[in-house]
Automatic annotation (TrEMBL):
Annotated keywords: DNA-binding, Phosphoprotein, Transcription, Transcription regulation
HTH araC/xylS-type domain sequence ranges: 296-395
Record domain Response regulatory: where: 149-263
A Gene Ontology molecular function term of the record: DNA-binding transcription factor activity
Protein name: histidine kinase
CDD domains recorded: REC_OmpR
SUPFAM superfamilies the record matches: ATPase domain of HSP90 chaperone/DNA topoisomerase II/histidine kinase, CheY-like, Homeodomain-like
Species in which this protein is naturally found: Saccharicrinis fermentans DSM 9555 = JCM 21142
Histidine kinase domain segment(s): 1-107
A Pfam family matched in the record: HTH_18
Catalytic activity, as annotated: ATP + protein L-histidine = ADP + protein N-phospho-L-histidine
Post-translational modification 4-aspartylphosphate, affected residues: D196
Length: 399
């Protein structure tokens, strides 16, 4: 309820002249809390009163110096609805406005699942820490800290700060629009993106489309937050390969569980790949087609340059059109390995194939798969397969 009051007062200040008068009243009657915020500002045309709670709606009659993004009252309405409240607005042009909100405050007004024990908590005006300031594994209050990076994309400042506050056990990046978020995603490669849909410059659907069709960022899970509720609108989100779709008003507990589940699913897929690559080098089940294409292309580049001792992470990233850091994060997210480890595994798998043919000696095989030093090849092979290349060639070829 503090956010409802804060938003109503902010709205009154925004549409009042300098040194204007604003009055707030709070009463409790018949199990309900009644809030009234009135001002002597510019007022609202009668024809616009029913529209002011619509997202992005701004009155054409308002003086340009008082214009806004049209999201504050929309968010306030969602909070009122969440608390089973009612709202009433009265206003006259040039005389001011009065917003009245009634919220039930007795347990009987809510279902058992909607109630929770009250815990004093400061307003979420948290200053977001820099991405490099968190340490893995420690706890902040009752929250277990995580190393995962979450990019929050929301144009409404209060909601963006509220989300960042409640997700402060992750490393958090924030953006006010899709265009800026796309740049941040390419530069920082977050582990998950949480985005509103309706935003200026670039909306959440367009952002999701760019993320999922760019081979650099296609692996990043995207959760869309929206007030849209029809099946067609939800389908539109999933067509753009969104990983989850959560309606406003939402439960912060449900959202945090959804985030944790998606991050864990991504880790499970990369762990599965990490174990399967040692057997087949093709463990890509559960990945998007674009990510499968990325791994297939990476294998192709390595296999085509197998004997090239100069093949490196830098040359692989250049062939794939990525920076070295982007390549590292992409491989870590998809396979839980580094690019250099991936290159070595592909080389060792090829070495095993050549040794199994019994057509080449150990030194020849080492050279054919790109090892300059045969002793380094022997130690790497033994570490990976549990036996020397000679033992492998002479005996059991299974690991």
């Amino acid at each position: 309820m503090d956010k409802i009051l804060f938003n109503l007062l902010s709205n009154a200040v925004k549409f009042s002249p300098v040194n204007g008068e604003i009055l707030m009243e709070v009463n409790v009657e018949n199990g309900e809390a009644i809030f009234k915020v009135s001002d002597k500002g510019i007022g609202i045309p009668e024809s616009d009163i029913e529209k002011i709670f619509e997202r992005f709606y701004t009155t054409d009659h308002a003086d340009h110096q008082f214009s806004g993004a049209g999201v504050g009252l929309s968010f306030t309405k969602s909070l009122i609805d969440l608390h089973k409240g009612k709202k009433h607005v009265s206003s006259k042009l040039g005389e001011g406005s009065c917003f009245e909100v009634t919220i039930p405050i007795v347990k009987e007004a809510y279902q058992e699942s909607e109630l929770q024990e009250h815990v004093d908590q400061p307003l979420p005006n948290t200053v977001i820490e820099d991405i490099t300031t968190h340490n893995d594994g420690h706890k902040e209050g009752d929250k277990e800290m995580h190393s995962d990076v979450i990019l929050i994309v929301e144009d409404y400042d209060d909601l963006r700060e509220y989300l960042a506050h409640n997700l402060s056990n992750y490393k958090v990046l924030t953006s006010a629009n899709g265009k800026e978020a796309l740049k941040l995603a390419n530069e920082n490669m977050p582990d998950l993106i949480l985005s509103d849909i309706m935003m200026p410059e670039m909306d959440g659907l367009e952002l999701c489309k760019h993320i999922k069709t760019n081979i650099i960022t296609s692996h990043i899970p995207v959760i869309l937050l929206t007030a849209r509720t029809t099946a067609e609108q939800k389908l539109e989100g999933f067509v753009h390969h969104a990983d989850a779709y959560i309606e406003k008003p939402f439960s912060i507990d449900l959202l945090t569980i959804q985030i944790a589940n998606l991050l864990q699913l991504k880790k499970n897929i990369s762990a599965k790949y990490n174990s399967e690559i040692k057997v087949t080098a093709k463990g890509d089940d559960g990945m998007l087609p674009l990510d499968k294409k990325f791994l297939a292309k990476s294998r192709e580049i390595i296999e085509n340059s197998m004997s090239d001792t100069e093949l490196s992470v830098e040359s692989l990233s250049s062939e794939l059109g990525m920076s070295r850091s982007q390549l590292f994060r992409k491989f870590k997210a998809l396979t839980n390995t580094t690019p250099s480890q991936f290159i070595k595994v592909i080389r060792l798998k090829k070495a095993a194939e050549l040794l199994a043919r019994k057509e080449y000696n150990v030194n020849e095989v080492a050279f054919m798969v790109g090892f300059v030093d045969s002793s380094h090849f022997i130690s790497s092979f033994k570490k990976f397969y549990g036996k020397t290349p000679k033992q492998f060639a002479e005996g059991d070829t299974s690991k």
